[in-house]
Amino acid sequence: MCIVIDTNRLSSVLNPKASDHGEFRPILDWIDRRKTKIVYGGTKYKEELSKAPKYFSTLVEMKKAGKVHEVDDGEVDRWENEIARKTQHTNFNDQAIVAIVIVSRCRLVCSNDQASFSFIRLKTLYPNGVSRPSIYTGRRNVALLNHKHIKGRCGPCSTC
After folding, report:
1. Structural domain includes residue 74
2. What is the pTM of this model?
C-alpha cells in the first residue's frame, strides 16, 4: 500500500505541532501501523523536498524503517514531461504527483492544492491500467485509508 503526499501537506502529516495535524494524524497512524508506505520520487518532487530539509531528513529516516518507498526518478521525470505536455497552457503545476501515481500505481494522494484536484483525477492523464487516485484532504476522508488502496510497486510492507 502506498500514499503520495504532496509536499504542501508533509508538515500536516509529519509534524505533531502543525495546527492541522489532527486532520492528517490518521495517515501517520496508518503508516506507523505498517499498513502503508509513503511513496515519492522524481527530480521536481525532490527539489520541492529540498526546500523543507526537516521533512526530507524525516523521510530518509522513515525509508530506513521501511515506511517509505522511492520510485525511479528517471521514470517519474519521463512521465512528468509527458503530463506537462498534455497540460500545457493550464494552471496545473503538480505534474510530479500524477507521474508518481503512474509509476507507483498508487491509488491515494494527500494534498490541499484544490486547483490541482481536477487534473489529478483527469482520466486522460493516466495510461490504460492505471487507476486515478482518491484524494485525502482531511479527517473526513479517513475511510480512504483502507486496503482497497493496495496496489502497485509499493506492495504491502514486508513486516506487516
Report:
1. yes
2. 0.91
